[in-house]
Write a structure and sequence with these properties.
This protein is of the alpha/beta class and 515 residues long. It has 3 domains: 241 residues, 2-enoyl-CoA Hydratase, Chain A, domain 1, CATH 3.90.226.10; 192 residues, 2-enoyl-CoA Hydratase, Chain A, domain 1 (Alpha-Beta Complex), CATH 3.90.226.10; 34 residues, no CATH class. It is 40% helix and 17% strand. The strands form 3 sheets. Strands 10, 11, 12, 13, 14, 15, 16 and 17 form an 8-stranded mixed sheet that branches. Helix 4 packs parallel to helix 5, helix 13 runs parallel beside helix 15 and helix 17 crosses helix 19. The longest helix is centred in the N-terminal third of the chain and has 17 residues. It is elongated, with a radius of gyration of 27 Å.
């Protein structure tokens, strides 16, 4: 290679790496956003990124497109490492045609997805795009279809993670919607099918970008976003934390780290965290943080369906998926959103061999016509399906209340949980004692001299005779009754015995989960 060829090579390389040019880079920075290349540089371990398709550009003409050809075609693709582990990553470049997706842009992403699938490594997509490239017409739509197909094929095979770090509109939202986890920036990130202007034109409703599809809305109301962060660096740190719990694919066990927390550690704090009074609220976060190694718990969807908690924490170095009712919010009842949130999390953990621990303290399902009309039967059935379908090790502790259908749903032995424990104060019954006696002893209470005192006495008797955990244990529905301070060491001992669990499933194409 002569000097002219090397100079030409360097000029082309430098121009390609400038994206849409310095002016557009400055605008990106002025909007408080990093460029696509800067994002990849901050996310990956230094010096590990290998780029693919640097010289790719679109081949369309018309609408002035023949004069708007840029290297990369608005998306940077390649692979690198995070904490020493390989990941495949694409980052849409808003400085080139607004990061819009055309035929070549979509083909680059699809080819990267094929590499991630074939090599068994996580796929991370950094989304910052105006959506489909209108000038390329149906070719843009076809490119989206190819991406959606690959998202679906890779589901349950390799972890797929979407980072929303700018606009994400129209067809672009469905790829993140299929992926396992969605991260959103608190500012500058939006997701919606139709934007505010279209909504105003069709329905005359005036909405802002933020209220329509911002991070707060998607993390608290729609449940689309699993994590939010105030800035890009915080978002990348959250992503690294999440990846530390996940295997690279469904054929590799989850990453075990040397334990730094004593597996024999007792947990006497639980006696004071959880009140003896059955109706007194408390924060289940405190229970989980006492049980997990070093108090480290990565909560998933913390702002959505807060009556149930899901997330990742370790036991003796092993990653575990935690599902827990939250008595500090709506008394820990199960409702439509809680069922959807926990069912999806359970199915992810099952796909990637992550054991499940369930902490039970719930009075049942939320009553009300709205819940019934919106399909609590169908949504609650998703949670039943997820637990029953899961073949990973499943452990559960009943802390206080486990009433009615909620007792069955929350990882009961009847759904093939492997090891179920209860605390001595646990109440397991068709319904709470107060409600039960009003039905069983209705006439007696009505005719008593002091109906209130009669109801209290009957409730006390019901609690002692029927709602205590010893009756369930005598039937084999609970494996053991333990003191709260024994909870962590008993969970670790049970998990150790179950790590090699194998369970055959019936031959079938797939089940029909009640979507």
């Amino acid at each position: 290679m002569n000097e002219n060829q090397e100079d030409q090579y360097l000029q082309i390389q430098n121009a390609a790496r400038l994206g849409g040019g310095q002016g557009r880079i400055d605008k990106q920075h002025a909007a408080g956003k990093l460029t696509a290349r800067e994002r990849i540089g901050k996310l990956l371990d230094p010096g590990t990124f290998i780029e693919t398709g640097l010289y790719v550009s679109h081949r369309s003409s018309g609408f002035g497109m023949e004069d708007k050809r840029y290297a990369t075609d608005g998306v940077i693709t390649g692979w690198g490492k995070i904490n020493g582990h390989r990941v495949y990553v694409f980052a849409q470049d808003f400085t080139i045609l607004g990061g819009s997706l055309g035929e070549a842009h979509g083909r680059k992403i699809a080819q990267l997805m094929d590499l991630a699938y074939q090599n068994g490594a996580p796929l991370i997509g950094i989304n910052d795009s105006g959506g489909a490239r209108i000038q390329e017409g149906v070719d843009s739509l076809a490119a989206y279809g190819e991406i959606f197909y690959r998202n679906t094929r890779a589901s349950g095979v390799t972890p797929q993670i979407s980072l929303i770090m700018g606009p994400c509109a129209g067809g672009a939202v469905y790829s993140p919607g299929i992926t396992d986890f969605v991260f959103m920036l608190d500012q500058n990130a939006f997701m919606f099918i139709t934007g505010p202007e279209v909504i105003k034109a069709v329905t005359h409703e005036e909405v802002t970008f933020e209220t329509l599809g911002g991070a707060v809305m998607h993390s608290e109301k729609s449940g689309v976003a699993h994590f939010t962060a105030p800035d890009e660096e915080a978002l990348f740190n959250q992503l690294r934390w999440l990846l530390s719990y996940l295997p690279p694919n469904n054929l590799t066990p989850p990453p075990v780290i040397p334990a730094t927390d004593d597996p024999q550690r007792l947990t006497p704090e639980l006696k004071t965290i959880v009140p003896d009074e059955q109706n007194q609220p408390y924060d289940m976060h405190g229970v989980i943080e006492v049980l997990v190694d070093d108090g480290e718990f990565l909560e998933v969807q913390p702002g959505y369906a807060q009556n149930i908690l899901v997330g990742f924490g370790r036991l003796d170095g092993h990653p575990v998926g935690w599902i827990a009712n939250q008595p500090g919010f709506l008394a820990g009842v199960l409702d439509i959103d809680a069922a959807d949130k926990s069912a999806r999390f359970i199915r992810f953990c099952d796909a990637f061999h992550i054991p499940l621990v369930t902490l039970v303290d719930t009075p049942g399902f939320l009553p009300g016509s709205d819940q019934e009309h919106d399909g609590i039967i169908r949504h609650g059935a998703k949670l039943i399906y997820a637990y029953a379908e899961a073949t990973v090790p499943k452990l559960a502790i009943i802390l206080r209340k486990a009433y009615g259908g909620a007792y069955i749903v929350m990882s009961s032995k009847h759904l093939r949980s492997d090891y179920n424990l209860a605390w001595p104060q646990a109440e397991i019954a068709v319904m709470g004692p107060e409600g039960a006696v009003k039905i069983i002893f209705r006439n007696e209470i009505k005719t008593a001299e002091d109906p209130g005192a009669a109801a209290q006495e009957r409730a006390r008797q019901y609690r002692e005779e029927f709602a205590n955990p010893y009756l369930a244990a005598s039937r084999g529905y609970v494996d053991d009754i333990i003191l709260p301070r024994e909870s962590r060491l008993r969970l670790i001992a049970a998990l150790e015995s179950l790590l090699d669990k194998r369970q055959n499933t019936p031959p079938r194409k797939h089940g029909n989960i009640p979507l």
